[in-house]
Amino acid sequence: MSGRTSQSVPSTPRVISPSPTPSEQDGTGQDGYSGPMTRSAARRRLATPQPVEEDIEEDENPELRRARTRSRSPLDTRKVAQLSPKKPSGTASSTLKPIATTATTTAIATPNGSTGEKAPETNGHLSLPTPSLYYGWSWRDFSRSPSPLGLIPIHRHWRTFVHKHEVPRKALHVSIGFFVVWLYLSGTQTYSVCPYLMGALIPIAAVDVVRHHYQPFNRLYVKVLGALMRESEFSGYNGVIFYLLGAWTALYFFPKDVGVMATLLLSWCDTAASTFGRLYGRYTPRLRRGKSLAGSSAAFLVGVGTAVYFWGWLAPTKGPFPGDENFMFTGTLRLPQLLADAVGLTPAKATISGGLALGVMSVWSGLVAAASEVVDLFGWDDNLTIPVLSGLGIWGFLKVFG
């Protein structure tokens, strides 16, 4: 026994039960009966920690009760509200709709239990808003937006000649300017041209309205005249309508030389801006959507050349014709009397004539042509805004300095 070391047996650990719940404290039996308790048991019970209070509410949210953590700590309802998904707004749900698949369909149940029409089953993807092609219009329909490819048959067969460079359309556009020059050389007065313009405007506009309400006729229309149209005009209004309206406005309301110049700027400057803008617009700054510095510069240069051609060569050498006595530009420009007196200039020094006056008038005409080509007035077509704004700019300048 002396050679052997006695090993001490560890004592049995004391197991302390967790804090009793109110249900355990009240009673253990089904009828709430508990056995007798001795004094020693009562003292031991007082020495143990008190039970955790549980506030059980009958109307507690069951979802929050399931989300209770193990530590039974109070739940922050603000964090739960942040985790709830947001409902989509009414605007987005009205414009973006699920794309329907054509393979499978589901039946729509009517209130009486019978099966109604077949509804396409959606695939969960959102489709783009569908534009109204054949009905309805807005002011933005007048704008010459980039043409899609595929609406007019001839644009698919002649992509470069007709669709990209618009050669037939631009040839017609430019030819109107030469026709105006021929009318001027023949001694035709501007007021005698206006009835013919209005006589062509009314039936063309009426046909355009009819073709938008009768699709077989619209398809025949674009098949015959598609080479002279942009594809955006398939569901919009023809640019010829605004061309005739702009030319009629310029020739009817402005003096002869201003009306002729406004029509020439429409015919030649707009074509130059479109041609050079498409060729070199990608290399120059963009002024606004569809307008570049290259196109506006071309419109400015052609406007300067047109003014030099008309006021510097055509009218002096081929005229005068009947009605030329009402020209606003007669080869001289002068400062207003109030401005000349303010700077102390005599009437002779405040007046310029000859080539200097022609140069100033030509530069101003180019600026007016470029500005009227680049401006966006309510989204209207350039064929209407260019002659009207150009005529107003030239008329106002000559009214002050002429």
TrEMBL record:
Residues 52-61 have a biased composition (Acidic residues). Residues 99-110 have a biased composition (Low complexity). Residues 1-125 are annotated as: Disordered. GO terms for molecular function: ATP-dependent diacylglycerol kinase activity. One of its GO terms (biological process) is phosphatidic acid biosynthetic process. GO terms for cellular component: endoplasmic reticulum membrane. The chain crosses the membrane at residues 171-190, 196-214, 235-254, 260-281, 293-314, 384-401. Keywords: Membrane, Transmembrane, Transmembrane helix. Residues 1-11 have a biased composition (Polar residues). This is Phosphatidate cytidylyltransferase. It comes from Apiosordaria backusii.
